[in-house]
Design a protein that fits this description.
The strands form three sheets. Strands 1, 2, 3, 4, 5, 6, 14, 15 and 16 form a nine-stranded mixed beta sheet that branches. Strands 7, 9, 10, 12 and 13 form a five-stranded antiparallel beta sheet that branches. The chain has a two-stranded antiparallel ribbon with strand order 8-11. The protein has eleven helices and 16 strands. The protein is globular and about 80 Å long. α3 links the parallel β3 and β4. It binds (2S)-amino(hydroxy)ethanoic acid and manganese (II) ion (2 copies). (2S)-amino(hydroxy)ethanoic acid binds next to loops. One manganese (II) ion binds next to loops.
């Protein structure tokens, strides 16, 4: 077994160990700031310390480990991904990038490589935004763009983000200290599963990410009129669920008719639901994505107008809140080229993909050049416990990542 396969096996072992830590009995869930999240983070911290990294938990809750250059004034190259998960998650979405980064640093230490720049490995604490319906809390803090207004956001149990930060030992008045100053960044690199079918269908282990799609997320409330299921005539009903259903199908029709757009309504909730009550209030999420910023903005506007028209026709009152917005991000051309060469040198066909999924690279791109490497996953399945990655594909990605980091050490310049 070659060195890459051995290293890949160790990464999978750690992924499996981390996957045993969950808030739930029968599935993997480690959402921001929970006891299980902290337990998982502590395990990653232990691995970082054992590797000899200068390790710390920052105020927002990221786990960070540094491998220092001999030059105290050196810039910082960040290798990262996230350690929080969605609910009922797969094992690889997030942890793969963090544990492959740890492996790269262990290899640099093993080979006693002189570093012209510091490398900081980060396990971000809230990429998925599942608990507070925010997103990128950890990477925004490191990028210096954390919005203090979200501190009042409450989770389903009514606990605020601020309380969770404090309960876990963070100081909300020190969050700005989590940021890496703009002038100190050299670059950012993230390895992540593709979460789509391209590599699986092409039978290629890795891909270079050229861009990350933009996204808009909205929270929508349809306010109708609750009523008795047996007595209210159909023609005078203000059925919030029927209205939401018409909207949901209209959104699907819209996205099917616009190639560059994907739209998802992943959450609906009927307030005071009962089988013999006409739904009076229904809450929906909307997740809209496109690699084309102008088309994304137009789609968002047109879908909102669709909602207004459907509600008007049904005498339903519409509440519409934009929850999150991120423009499309283009990966750094110099690093993309270095990754293309690294894939080539490793003997694989170069494939470039626009990521439909968001990643922590998005907020970081405001302060640093970013690059991402995708790893094939089984049938492109993700955000699903069936998510799986073959050891040989991790070994391929290790080889490419080693090539990339060696190129970076040689050039030490991304400007
Ligand atoms: O939703 C996303 O794109 C990412 O998986 N958080
Ligand atoms: Mn995800
Ligand atoms: Mn992810």
């Amino acid at each position: 077994m070659n060195n890459f396969s051995e290293r890949a096996e160790k990464i999978v072992q750690r992924i499996n160990e981390l996957a045993c830590i969950s808030e739930e009995e029968k599935c993997i869930t480690r959402t921001y700031g929970t006891k299980s999240f902290v337990e998982g983070r502590t395990k990653v911290a232990q691995w970082m310390k054992e590797a000899g990294l200068e390790t710390r938990v920052d105020h927002i809750g990221n786990i960070r480990g540094r491998l220092l250059s001999a030059d105290p004034d050196a810039k910082i190259f960040v290798i990262a991904s996230h350690i929080d998960t969605i609910i009922n998650a797969g094992k690889f979405d997030g942890p793969l990038g963090v544990l492959m980064g740890l492996d790269s640093l262990e290899e640099l230490i093993r080979s006693k490589t002189e570093l012209p720049f510091h490398i900081e490995l980060i396990g971000f604490c809230d990429e998925e935004g599942c608990r507070f319906h925010t997103a990128y809390l950890g990477s925004k803090a490191v990028a210096g763009s954390f919005d203090h207004a979200v501190l009042d956001t409450k989770d389903a149990a009514g606990i605020s983000l601020e309380e969770v930060i404090r309960m876990n030992g963070g100081d909300v008045n020190q969050l700005s200290k989590d940021a890496i100053a703009g002038e100190d960044w050299l670059g950012y690199f993230e390895i992540h599963i593709e979460q789509g079918p391209v590599l699986y269908e092409k039978n290629i282990p890795v891909a270079v990410v050229s861009a990350i799609a933009g996204q808009c997320r909205a929270g929508i409330v349809f306010n109708g009129e609750a009523g008795h299921a047996g007595t209210v005539p159909m023609n005078i009903r203000k059925d919030a669920l029927a209205c939401a259903a018409e909207f949901i199908l209209a959104v699907e029709r819209f996205a099917n008719a616009h190639e560059s757009i994907v739209a998802t309504i992943g959450k609906t909730h009927i307030i005071h639901a009962a089988s013999n009550v006409i739904p009076g209030e229904v809450i929906c999420s909307l997740d809209l994505r496109s690699a084309d910023d102008a088309k994304l903005a137009l789609a968002y506007k047109e879908i909102k107008e669709m909602a207004e028209a459907i509600c008007g026709k049904r005498s339903i009152i519409l509440e519409w809140n934009l929850v999150q917005q991120a423009k499309p991000v283009h990966c750094d051309e110099k690093m993309v080229d270095m990754l293309r060469q690294s894939v080539n040198t490793a003997g694989y066909e170069v494939v470039e993909i626009v990521s439909g999924a968001g990643h922590d690279a998005v907020p970081v791109s405001a302060v640093s050049p970013v690059a991402m490497l995708f790893v094939r996953c089984f049938k492109g399945i993700s955000h699903n416990p069936a998510e799986d990655v073959e050891v040989k594909d991790i070994a391929a990605a290790i080889q490419v990542s080693d090539n990339f980091i060696q190129q970076l050490i040689k050039t030490n310049n991304l400007s």
